[in-house]
From TrEMBL:
It comes from Prescottella agglutinans. Keywords: Aspartyl protease, Hydrolase, Protease. Belongs to the peptidase A31 family. The keyword Protease applies. InterPro entries: Pept_HybD-like_dom_sf, Peptidase_A31. One of its GO terms (biological process) is protein processing. NCBIfam families: hydrog_prot. GO terms for molecular function: aspartic-type endopeptidase activity; enzyme activator activity. This is Hydrogenase maturation protease.
């Protein structure tokens, strides 16, 4: 009788909520992270997934990415991707950091985080952005109505992305035609 092979370890996935909660809809990423960890989402995050609210701490994210994650899911408010509250899921590759959201009202441009990671000698893992079109990033606490209404759907999108990152998927090529 052949012994059963040990189960493969789940992929290590970092879910990063980014944004400034003091600038209206820019607080979308942190709010989605709260939904994921507080039980508001439709399911719990699986083993191997770490969810962190980075807020505006871009260098903290760059240093954490040095831990050699299999995949990264960025959750952020994004500009020019439809009507306020529209949620978009798209992939960015290491050679195309310009495709990452560049709202930067929070002082944390993901492209700058990717450049910092490269300068530190790290590699960008397979990266998917779950972004929501912002309505207003003026000073003020709280999301606009359309963006607030998108939080739970975005949390479910994060869960769908994470569930799609099986062992074979995290090392696969980036398909830049999607999104």
């Amino acid at each position: 009788m052949t012994p059963a092979s040990p189960a493969a370890s789940p992929p290590r996935i970092l879910v990063a909520g980014i944004g400034n909660i003091f600038l209206g809809d820019d607080g979308f990423g942190p709010e989605v992270l709260h939904a994921l960890v507080s039980g508001r989402a439709s399911a719990a995050l699986p083993d191997g997934v770490r969810a962190v609210d980075y807020g505006i701490r871009g260098m903290h994210l760059a240093y954490d990415l040095l831990d050699d994650w299999d995949a990264l899911v960025l959750v952020d408010a994004v500009p020019d991707r439809g009507r306020p509250g529209d949620v978009r899921v798209f992939e960015v590759g290491p050679d195309d950091p310009g495709a990452a959201p560049r709202l930067d009202a929070h002082g944390m441009d993901p492209g700058a985080v990717f450049a910092s990671l490269a300068a530190l000698g790290g590699r960008l893992p397979r990266t998917v952005v779950v972004g929501c079109q912002a309505a207003c990033v003026d000073e003020g606490i709280g999301l606009s109505a359309p963006v607030a209404a998108a939080v739970d759907d975005a949390a479910d999108e994060v869960l769908a992305v994470v569930s799609g990152f099986g062992p074979a998927a995290v090392g696969g090529p980036v398909d830049e035609t999607e999104g």
